[in-house]
Write a structure and sequence with these properties.
The chain has about 350 residues and is of the alpha+beta class. The protein folds into two domains: about 240 residues, Roll (Dipeptide-binding Protein, domain 3); about 45 residues, no CATH class. Helix content is about 35%, strand content about 15%. Strands 1, 2, 3, 6, 7, 8 and 9 form a seven-stranded mixed β-sheet that branches.
Length: about 350
């Protein structure tokens, strides 16, 4: 008679817009949870990400509203900060960058020249072919007895293999690539968990980044392996992941430099002395106004440094049968709190004269 969590795609099927958030037999309850999904930059794993201009361009190129519109059931609200709307210290005026693909392209043009697909193909093909030839020369210890025809056939087979490999690594929708003055291609890998939601978001982000010329790979990791293989060793360039902030939106566990190493939750490995001081002051003060002031200044630093791109805060879908009466749910901080008013729920009713 109730479902504890309804995935966004199923929620959309059961309670479409025609029912206004409900169906004939069920009532859908939606809650904004105190958690957010973001793209966390690991600058140590990808040196190109040390460039703040590049991180800015990557932020500007993501249309968060379009991203959410593509998610089944529209399961979230676009955000720019790790301090969520309505939370203590949230600053709607913080100068986080807004979507602007044209500006993103202009910034990238400064250091990353555009490369047409066929030129990219040729450069990658030539590089792999050169490596193969060097390996063949290094391992060759005797003259071959192959005929010229056989040698030609072997060469053609190798060239086809290299060509197929390069083509498979190119996205058909990517209209151009980028390279720096050292002829290094701008390439980034997004790592995320193998849930339908995160896989879809990762592909949507990849498509937006490809549109501005960034070559993107996606690495999908099983939920049971994410801690052991990815988070523990910080083995990612860009991590698409969610963080639960809880009822007290204290950013310290997620953004203080003391939390960089596992099991700390500073997934961007963000180390900033002024930001640390603000987070420490916010924890130490008993004055709400001073805590708010510290959080606002902290958000200004994040907006400038861009250690991560904050995408959306999630919605929790809870479905109950319309036979159940007395379900009154306001804000919840964890899914379990949906049952806080369970003692007021009832099913049986009867006709009775009013007194």
């Amino acid at each position: 008679m109730a479902i504890s969590f309804l995935p966004y795609d199923l929620a959309n099927k059961i309670s479409g817009p025609r029912q206004g958030g409900a169906s004939k037999n069920f009532q859908l309850h939606k809650f904004k949870l105190p958690q957010y999904t973001a793209l966390f930059f690991n600058q140590d794993a990808a040196p190109a990400l040390k460039d703040s201009e590049l991180r800015l361009a990557l932020n500007l190129s993501i249309d968060k509203n379009q991203l959410l519109a593509q998610m089944p059931g529209s399961g979230g609200e676009a955000i720019s900060s790790p301090i969520l709307p309505d939370d203590l210290g949230y600053d709607p005026e913080a100068p986080f960058p807004a979507f602007d693909a044209n500006k993103a392209g202009q910034i990238l043009d400064k250091n990353w020249k555009q490369v047409q697909p066929e030129d990219y193909f040729k450069s990658q093909y030539d590089a792999i072919l050169k490596t193969r030839q060097q390996q063949t020369t290094a391992t060759s210890t005797k003259q071959t007895s192959s005929t010229p025809e056989e040698l030609a056939g072997e060469k053609a087979a190798v060239e086809k293999e290299i060509s197929d490999t390069v083509r498979q690594g190119m996205d058909a929708e990517q209209s151009f690539y980028r390279k720096n003055k050292n002829n290094e291609i701008l390439e980034i890998t997004i790592t995320t968990v193998d849930t339908p939601e995160y896989q879809q978001v990762a592909e949507a982000v990849a498509k937006m980044w490809r549109a501005v010329g960034v070559k993107i790979k996606t690495q999908i990791v099983g939920g049971s392996q994410i801690n052991k293989e990815v988070l523990r060793d910080r083995a990612y360039q860009v991590l698409l992941y969610g963080e639960i902030v809880g009822g007290d939106p204290d950013p310290y566990p997620f953004w203080h430099s003391s939390q960089i190493n596992y099991p700390g939750l500073n997934l961007s490995l963000f180390a900033h002395r002024a930001a640390d001081k603000l987070l420490e002051d916010a924890r130490a003060t008993t004055t709400e106004s001073k805590r708010i002031e510290s959080y606002k200044k902290f958000q200004e630093i994040l907006a400038k440094e861009i250690p991560a791109i904050f995408l959306y805060t999630s919605t929790y879908n809870f479905l109950t049968s319309k036979e159940i009466k007395g379900v009154v749910l306001n804000q919840i901080f964890s899914p379990a709190e949906r049952l806080n008013g369970l003692n007021n729920w009832y099913i049986k009713t009867k006709r009775q004269w009013r007194r």
